[in-house]
Amino acid sequence: MTLLYFAWVRQKTGRGEEQLALPDNVKTVADLASFLKARGGGYEEAFADLRRMRVAVNQDHSGFDTPLRDSDEVAFFPPVTGG
Amino acid sequence: MSVRISIQHSDFDIAVEIANLDAQDTGAVATFTGMVRKEGDLTALTLEHYPGMTEREIARIADDAQTRWPLLGVTIIHRIGRLMPGEKIVLVAVAAQHRSAAFQACEFLMDYLKTRAPFWKQEERNGKAQWVEARHSDDKAAERWRDK
């Protein structure tokens, strides 16, 4: 799967994009967030409070309960502030 | 209905965009222009976006507007990159036969764009960069259209 990070999430993880083979125990976006948080460092900081984070799966705004497949594009970012 | 969506670094010319919306039967064009405020110690605003999703999300918002009002054309331009105080950020222009649809759709498009389109603003003040927090009032503004 492709993971994308934007704004302060990108700054904390230290990268804008990465490829990841869907881990066996990751079934939903929430599972993925826990998996990434467990890496520690900037990831732990980025995923510390999921209430501050939004997610898109395959470029659609999605919830943390969304099921995932290995072919998905998952983006993590703060609430949007355009306009 | 013609829909033009552009995410771009460069500035835009409002008069040209209005002229391009002039279709058969157009009786009203409403426009909204968002600008970088000239306030105190704000020296620049940098806009980041999610390429691909941004265009898709704005297209969905424009489609939604079209189901609510009889529109003849919609143009949405949003700039990205580093902008200075006084520079234009966003343009929403709506053409319709009558002003009521044009005014309402313009406001609806801006409210939804602010809460759904994946853009993020970073402010520079006194040489320090800080991400802008989302505003609850913007969520409230978008919510009022939900049941209409």
Can you walk me through this structure?
The complex is a heterodimer of chains A (83) and B (148). Chain A is of the alpha+beta class and 83 residues long. Chain A has one domain (2-77): Roll (Ubiquitin-like (UB roll)). Chain A is globular and about 35 Å long. Chain A contains three helices and five strands, in the order βαβααβββ. The model of chain A has no long low-confidence stretch (mean pLDDT 97). Chain A has a five-stranded mixed beta sheet. Chain B has 148 residues and is an alpha+beta fold. Helix content of chain B is 33%, strand content 37%. The longest helix of chain B is centred in the last third of the chain and has 18 residues, at 99-116. Chain B has a single domain, classed as Alpha-Beta Complex (Aldehyde Oxidoreductase, domain 3). In chain B, the strands form two sheets. In chain B, strands 1-4-6-2 form a four-stranded mixed beta sheet, with helices on both faces. In chain B, strands 5-3-7-8 form a four-stranded antiparallel beta sheet, with no helix packed on it. Chain B is globular, with a radius of gyration of 16 Å. Chain B has helices spanning 14-20, 53-68, 99-116, 136-143; strands at 2-8, 28-35, 42-49, 71-79, 81-83, 88-96, 119-125, 128-131. The interface between A and B is medium-sized, with 15 and 29 residues.
